[in-house]
Amino acid sequence: MQATSILIVDDHPVYRDALQQLLSKKFISSNITVHTAESLAQGLSTVKNSTYSWIVLLDLQIPDSEHELSGIKEFKQLSNVATIAAISGLEKEDVEQACLDAGCALFISKNSDSSSIYESICNLIGHIPNTPEITQLTGRQQEILRYVSEGHSNKMIAYSLQISEQTVKIHLGDIFKKLKVFNRTQAVIKAKEHGWS
Predict the structure, then answer these.
(1) Between the CA of residue 145 and those of 29, 126, 171, what are the distances in Å?
(2) Which of 24, 37, 39, 116 could cross-link to 112 by cystine, CB 3.0-4.6 Å?
(3) Cα gap 123→174, rounded to integer Å
(4) What are phi and psi of 160, to 5 degrees?
(5) Is-contact 94 64, C-beta < 8 A?
């Protein structure tokens, strides 16, 4: 199976880098890498010279594009492009339908907040978004939650992680607070609901 990567093609370095940082952080646990290109030519070259399956986030007003929709058509011709989302500061109602007609799966306004952009991309690729509750768990708490979801007792978790049973109980108490649940079963259900565990 091909590894999936996201490519942000945008000539505005501040927006491009901020979006890359956001998505890299959000998708880190999913092994989806996020790359950038500052021009259409660089973006096309990146895709052509790789074996990834690409999700392309394309700025419609990239300077080296013949017109707003030509970049979409060029990426559509590449076999390893799984899907394309248009990103633009233009008014959604003015360009969204033309983008969809040209082959985009989604239109993302640059005026959207970061959580909306992340959720839109998750929906696009069939990925369940990480909720803030899950992502705010520490690495050790996530590890313990994984053991709990596999049915391990506190004693077994303590043995596996080489920590005391009391430490496991303290971590579980913190996990329950962060996930806003009252017991192990609820914690596991909440994690599974969000595709995390």
Answers:
(1) 15, 24, 9
(2) 116
(3) 30
(4) -65, -40
(5) no
Q: Give the orientation angle of helix 154-161 with respect to helix 139-149, to 10 degrees.
A: 130
Rg (CA), the chain: 21
Q: For residue 138, give the nearest of 109, 159, 167 by alpha carbon.
A: 167
Q: Look-up: residue for tokens 């040209």?
A: 102
Dihedral angle over CA of 176, 182, 183, 188, nearest 10: -60
**The tokens 């290109």 sit on which residue?**
37
With 60 as the cut, is the pLDDT of residue 197 above it? no
Cα–Cα distance, 134 to 39 (Å, whole number): 36
CA distance 13 to 174: 39
Residue 105: name the closest of 128, 125, 90 by CA.
125
189 three-class SS = helix
For 127-182, write each residue's pLDDT tens digit: 766 666 666 788 888 889 889 988 999 999 999 999 999 999 999 999 888 888 88
